């Protein structure tokens, strides 16, 4: 073992010495796990709709699901501008639809309004719907849905003079999932060539650019297969593949880029290829490991929410970061050792040759001016970010609803027509009552009282509908209310039913369980869950990140300052989200219609993702600063050299991240647009204002206090001084060792 070894150095030495094993082993692994997934051997367990519902509403949905009262319900909507249900032609289409569905595989409980046993007719009688169910619980029901869709399409084709469409939980989920997958494919088709182009410019050669690009892409593919294993314990949400692509491409390219730039700098300074890899492993490799651990810690904070969707996000992001970190440390050195100077083949014209260690003139000039007037710089830059963050104080978190989904999806067009014709079917509060006998006795009488009290409320707009389980132990009372599901009217109706009507009726019956669900209830309970868990997530992420950076840099000031600066960039990103999506400043440009707020899951998600990714730059830059300081430079000179010397790499990495995230702002779903804009803005701020202005300005003001470590923490391990680029190396079997100065 070498005197100045760290874990990253030992991994890098092994990889360079066993390059065939490292490279072929990784490729075989990727092909194997991805092949097993493609062939169905590794199957991904996905979240059911019940799993994704939190709190009291989630408990209500589980009671209904266990009682077999949550079938896959669908409707066929038939409309005519000229005819009504009373006309023979319209009635014939209704009869044809019901008969065709009755004869369709996996379709049950067909009910037509003409038979008087279900369905509905609008007040103007120009619209009517036939309702039916799909056999099997949710996942099986979704698989059995295809036959009914084909039947409805035939009815639509045979009756072109009528508007015919299908809508329901199953068909909507299928259509949304198909659109989501198309969006993910679009994101990949846009982000991959953009990433490769940026890397070609940053690294100056096609072969060099293909190395981080290929490693990041294989990391993403491997992760998509690997997460199928933990999915049997933690089922995954339907959009985790998009998240894996988003985060995996960003961090995978970043880590490889930082590692390669350091190796190329050392090679350009005259070291042998093996020696250059050794230095890169010991310095940038160590920074990659610390950065990866910090990012993983931040993203693991989502486990604390206790929400199944956030848990699936945590599994996906922690896995892809861990895989990207492993590939950078254990596979990249082998690739660089194998390629040698061939990595510079396919040189891009007008770019710098082989990573010469030149400081950025632009950033060097900016940092010099900032450090001359640190107080002015802090006031101006900090004031700008605080001004951007101020709108976040008025952030209104909302639950994305049907109205926020792309309207070019046919099933959503049917939904719009359905809600316009049947407003009483749009929004309902569902009171679930579980008791020994819900048809009679105290529970049955209380349910009758519930219906009576609800009918007297001005917030209830129709008759309540009661459904009983086969064994009469569960009753579902559907109370139609004003509102569209998640707006203020809906929430006011929910509060009245939950807080006043239910306690006064079914809530007072002994040995009876009462839960409330519905769109408004689910949104309210999810928001309450996040509000209660967010302080715990913040404490976990900030606390562990502080400890990790404290140990890494042996300073109590560095981690505190990094946390403050990162929170400032997150706050500014929140403010931009409010201005763009809540106030609607970007509607025309981004192609959306504001729903008056920011989607409720995004603030916590953005915090953990942005905090982790922002730490990337701090770890890499401060590692270079600390390296220069340990060589004997003053803090001011070390800061100037560390920032200006790493500017090209950091800027390239930031551009990759910003471009990848910006691609998601072009997708159909408003949630993706918000996520893409929030991530892109925060990374842009972090790579420019934070890194170029506030970091050097605060370090200049603090001077040697940047490295302050209380006496009672002096026991922390101390890293050895890193070698200068002009110091000699003594080559030993299996590796290199820097000569003592």
List the SSEs and their pairings:
Blueprint: H1 7-17, H2 19-38, H3 55-66, E1 72-79, H4 88-102, E2 107-111, E3 120-121, E4 127-134, H5 138-143, H6 145-158, E5 163-168, H7 169-203, H8 206-226, H9 240-268, H10 273-300, H11 308-330, H12 332-339, H13 361-372, H14 374-389, E6 397-398, H15 410-421, E7 428-434, H16 441-455, E8 465-468, E9 474-480, H17 488-504, E10 513-517, H18 519-553, H19 557-582, H20 587-590, E11 598-599, H21 602-630, H22 635-664, H23 670-702, E12 729-732, E13 735-738
Parallel strand pairs: 6-11
Antiparallel strand pairs: 1-4, 1-5, 2-4, 3-4, 7-9, 7-10, 8-9, 12-13
Structural account:
This protein has 741 residues and is of the alpha+beta class. 61% of the residues lie in helices and 9% in strands. The protein has 23 helices and 13 strands. The strands form 4 sheets. Strands 1, 2, 3, 4 and 5 form a 5-stranded antiparallel β-sheet that branches. Strands 8-9-7-10 form a 4-stranded antiparallel β-sheet, with helices on both faces. Strands 6-11 form a two-stranded parallel sheet. A hairpin with a 2-residue loop joins strand 12 and strand 13 (735-738).
Radius of gyration: 30 Å
The outline comes out as elongated
Strand content: 5-15%
Helical coverage, percent range: 55-70%
Structural class: alpha+beta
So what's the oligomer here? single chain
Distance between the termini: 20 Å
Mean pLDDT: 87
Uncertain regions spanning at least 5 consecutive residues: 720-741
The main sheet comes to: 5 strands, antiparallel
Put simply, the count of helices is: 23
Tally of DSSP β-strands? 13
């Amino acid at each position: 073992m070498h005197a100045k070894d760290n874990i990253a150095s030992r991994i890098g030495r092994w990889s360079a010495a066993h390059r065939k094993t490292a490279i072929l082993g990784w490729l075989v692994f990727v092909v194997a796990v991805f092949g097993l997934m493609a062939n169905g051997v590794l199957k991904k367990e996905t979240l059911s709709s019940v799993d994704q519902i939190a709190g009291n509403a989630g408990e209500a949905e589980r009671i209904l699901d266990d009682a077999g009262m949550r079938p896959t319900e669908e409707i066929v909507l038939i409309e005519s501008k000229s005819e009504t249900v009373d006309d023979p032609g319209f009635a014939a289409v209704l009869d044809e639809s019901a008969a065709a569905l009755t004869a369709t595989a996996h379709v049950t409980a067909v009910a037509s309004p003409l038979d008087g046993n279900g369905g509905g007719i609008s007040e103007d009688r120009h619209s009517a719907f036939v309702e039916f169910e799909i056999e099997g619980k949710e996942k099986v029901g979704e698989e059995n849905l295809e036959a009914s869709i084909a039947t409805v399409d035939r009815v639509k084709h045979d009756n072109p003079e009528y508007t015919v469409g299908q809508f329901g939980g199953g068909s909507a989920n299928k259509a949304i999932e198909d659109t989501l997958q198309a969006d993910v494919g679009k994101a990949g088709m846009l982000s991959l060539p953009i990433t490769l182009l940026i890397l070609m410019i940053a690294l100056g050669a096609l072969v060099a650019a293909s190395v981080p690009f290929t490693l990041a892409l294989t990391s993403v593919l491997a992760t998509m297969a690997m997460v199928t294993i933990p999915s049997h314990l933690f089922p995954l949400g339907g959009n985790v593949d998009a998240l894996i692509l988003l985060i995996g491409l960003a961090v995978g390219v970043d880590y490889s880029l930082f590692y390669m730039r350091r190796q190329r700098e050392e090679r350009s300074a005259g070291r042998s290829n093996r020696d250059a890899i050794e230095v890169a492993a010991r310095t940038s490799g160590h920074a990659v490991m610390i950065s990866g651990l910090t990012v993983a810690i931040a993203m693991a904070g989502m486990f604390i929410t206790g929400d199944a969707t956030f848990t699936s996000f945590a599994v996906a992001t922690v896995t892809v970061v861990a895989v990207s970190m492993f590939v950078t440390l254990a596979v990249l050195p082998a690739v660089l050792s194998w390629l040698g100077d061939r990595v510079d083949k396919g040189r891009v014209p007008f770019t710098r040759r082989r990573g010469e260690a030149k400081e950025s003139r632009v950033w060097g000039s900016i940092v010099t001016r900032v450090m001359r007037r640190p107080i002015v710089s802090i006031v101006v830059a900090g004031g700008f970010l605080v001004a951007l963050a101020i709108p976040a104080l008025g952030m209104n978190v909302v639950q994305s609803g049907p109205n926020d989904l792309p309207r070019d999806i046919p099933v959503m067009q049917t939904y719009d027509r359905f809600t316009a014709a049947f407003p009483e079917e749009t929004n309902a509060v569902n009171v679930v009552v579980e008791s020994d006998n819900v048809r009679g006795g105290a529970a049955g009488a209380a349910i009758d009282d519930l219906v009576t009290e609800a009918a007297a409320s001005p917030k209830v707009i129709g008759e309540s509908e009661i459904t009983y389980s086969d064994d009469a132990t569960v009753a579902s009372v559907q109370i139609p209310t004003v509102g569209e599901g998640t707006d203020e009217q809906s929430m006011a109706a929910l509060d009245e039913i939950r807080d006043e009507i239910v306690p006064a009726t079914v809530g007072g019956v002994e040995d009876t369980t009462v839960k409330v669900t519905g769109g408004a209830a689910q949104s309210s309970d999810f928001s309450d869950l996040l509000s209660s868990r967010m302080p715990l997530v913040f404490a976990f992420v900030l606390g562990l990140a502080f400890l990790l950076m404290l140990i890494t840099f042996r300073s109590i000031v560095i981690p505190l300052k990094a946390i403050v600066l990162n929170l400032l960039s997150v706050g500014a990103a929140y403010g931009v989200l409010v201005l763009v999506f809540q106030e609607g400043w970007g509607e025309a440009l981004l192609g959306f219609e504001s729903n008056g707020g920011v989607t409720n899951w995004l603030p916590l998600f953005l915090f953990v993702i942005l905090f982790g990714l922002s730490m990337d730059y701090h770890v890499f830059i401060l590692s270079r600063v600390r390296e220069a300081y340990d060589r004997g430079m003053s803090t001011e000179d070390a800061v100037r050299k560390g920032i200006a010397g790493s500017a090209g790499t950091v800027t390239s990495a930031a551009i990759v991240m910003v471009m990848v995230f910006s691609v998601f702002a072009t997708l159909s779903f408003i949630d993706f647009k918000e996520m893409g804009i929030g991530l892109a803005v925060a990374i842009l701020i972090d790579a420019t204002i934070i890194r170029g202005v506030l970091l050097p300005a605060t370090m200049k003001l603090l001077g040697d206090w940047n490295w302050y470590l209380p006496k009672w923490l002096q026991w922390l391990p101390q890293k050895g001084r890193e070698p200068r680029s002009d110091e000699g190396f003594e080559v030993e079997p299996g590796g290199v060792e820097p000569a003592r100065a």
